[in-house]
Model the fold of this input.
Amino acid sequence: MVELETSQLNSIFHALGDATRRRMLRELAGGELTVSQLAEPFAISLAAASKHIKALEHAGLIRREVHGRTHLCRLDPGPLASAHQWLGFYERFWTDRLNVLERLLHDGAACESPPSPPSKGDDR
Done:
């Protein structure tokens, strides 16, 4: 089970590691698109677009349905939830650490006494 989750997370983060694939996911958030429609905004061939789509499919981030010669792609946000959960652990970890640091800095600043102003007779 743990290996499957690790493998799935690896696939998700691999897929999200490419700007073209992230943009494709953003486009699919608006609804189903064909492979041609997904490839259109990029200066890439349909074969290159297909490779990106396969990486997204492998990660489970999109589903592709074939209707004759038309390949329709749609977003499947479920796997993003597991990636979000994984990232959430580290978000809480670092938030807690930064809160501790903030308290330490605040407490340290409160302990320091402000410098005393120079006296009138001081010719520095």
In short: The longest helix spans residues 78-111.
